[in-house]
Specification:
single chain; alpha+beta; HU Protein, Chain A; 3 helices
Length: about 90
């Protein structure tokens, strides 16, 4: 599903909002989620799941083509844990 399809679906279900207004609302939600994750906060959407950042430590890796050792820097990665209701819906 793309962002425009999501905007269309929400605009269909919500009376009184135009497509442009719906787009602004969804953009505000997405920006709020991004800002919270950037600050290191956890995002919890009941029935859907949790988003949080995990830190991966720096490590030594090996280039499989040359066999040479490569330093991989520490980085943050997004982790999503599915909520109970969504997990049950997907597994039924």
């Amino acid at each position: 599903m793309t962002r425009s399809v999501l905007v269309d679906k929400v605009a269909e279900r919500v009376d009184g909002l135009t497509r442009k207004q719906t787009e602004i609302v969804l953009e505000t939600v997405f920006e709020s989620i991004k800002e919270s994750l950037k600050k290191g906060d956890k995002i919890e959407i009941r029935g859907f799941g949790n988003f949080r950042l995990k830190t991966r430590n720096a490590r030594k890796a090996r280039n499989p083509k040359t066999g040479e050792s490569v330093d991989v820097p520490a980085k943050k990665v997004l982790h999503f844990k599915v909520g109970k209701e969504l997990r049950e819906l997907l597994n039924s």
